[in-house]
Amino acid sequence: MATSSVSQGESAASLAGQPVNPPMRTPWQVTKAVWYALILREIQSMFFSRRFGAFWVLAEPMLHVVIMMLIFSFIRDIAMPGVPFALWLLLGIVPFFMMREIVFGNLGAIKANKALFTYRQVKPFDTYVARAAVQIMVYGSVLVILTSALMFLFGYDLPVYKPIQLLMVVGVMVALAFGLGILFSLLVHALPDIEPIVRLLFFPLYLLSGVIFPLSFVPSKYYEYLLWNPFLHLIDLFRQYSLAAYTPLEGTNLTYPAEFALVLMFFGLLIYRQRQYALVMD
User: Fold this and answer.
1) Residue pLDDT, tens place only, 107-130
2) CB of 127 within 8 A of CB of 109?
3) In 10 A of CB 176, how many CB atoms?
4) CB-based contact 87:152 (threshold 8 Å)
5) Where do the H-state alpha helices sit in the chain?
6) Is the CB of residue 95 less than 8 Å from the CB of residue 241?
7) Neighbour count for residue 183 (Cβ, 10 Å)
8) Residue 177 and residue 102: Cα distance in Å, rounded?
9) From the CB of residue 281, how many other CB atoms can be counted at a distance below 10 Å?
10) Of the chain's two ends, which shows fewer C-beta atoms within 10 Å, N or C?
C-alpha cells in the first residue's frame, strides 16, 4: 500500500507540473558515464581534431611496421625458423607500441584534461583509464588490419595459437604499461623537465626487448641480464601464444612481468592517492 501511494503521488506531481527527483546513480554508474564521455572526447581529439586525423593515427604504426618489414626482410634477409619473419616482426612491434603509447598517453593526460577537473565527478585517474582504452582500441585495430592483410596477400595462418593465454598476456601488458604510465605521469608532474628523458628511455627498451632483433644470438652471460626486462618476456610470450611454430626464448615466463606489473600498480596508485588533490589544484 505504501509503495502504491508513493507512485500515485509521483504521478500526481508529474501531472501537476511539479518536478520529480530523478533516481540516484551509484558511484559505479557515475564512473562508467565519466569514462564513456572521456573516451569519446579522446577519440574525437585524436581522430577528428586535424585533417585526415583518423588516417594518420592508424597509418603511423602501420607505416613503421611495413618499413621495418621491408628493411629486415629484404635488405638484411633475416629469417626465423618455421615462422614468417614479417609476421614475427608485426607481433613484436604492435604490442610494444601499444604499451609505449599507453605510458606516453598518461604523461600528458592531466595537463590535457585540466579544465575538466572543475567537475567533481572527473578525477585524474579517469583520464588515465580513458587514454589507455583508446590506445588499446587503436593498436588492436592496427593488429587486426595488418594481420588480415598478411593472411590475404601471403596466405599466412591466423596468428592465434592459444587465445586464452594470449588474452592473459595482453592483460599483463596493459597492467604493466598502465602502472608505469601512472608513475611516470606523477613524476613528470612533479618534475616537468624530465619528460624528454622518460620518452628517450623507450628507445633502448625497444632494442633490448627483442621487438625487431632476435635475441637468440646474444651470449648467455649477457642474455641473463636481458631477462630482467619484463617487456622482453611479454613480447616473446605474445609471439609464443600467437604462432604455433614459434620457438620461445629460454627463461621467459608470465609470472615475472605479472608481479612487476602488480608492484608498479600498487606504488602508482599509492602515490596517486596521496597526490590526487595536488594534481587537480596545481
Assistant:
1) 989 888 888 888 888 999 999 999
2) yes
3) 25
4) no
5) 2-15, 27-48, 53-70, 85-107, 109-112, 124-154, 163-190, 195-200, 202-208, 220-226, 230-242, 255-281
6) no
7) 20
8) 6
9) 7
10) N
Residues in the chain: 282
* Grid cell in block for residue 139: 593498436
Cell readout for 29 is: 554508474
Grid coordinates belonging to 112: 590535457
**Bigger pLDDT: 124 vs 11:** 124
- Of 47-51, 54-58, 87-91, 226-230, give the range with the top mean pLDDT: 226-230
Q: Is the pLDDT of residue 180 over 50?
A: yes
Count other Cβ atoms within 10 Å, centred on residue 64. 14
Residue 5 pLDDT grade (very low, low, confident, very high; cuts 50, 70, 90) = very low
- Rounded Cα distance between 113 and 272, Å, is 16
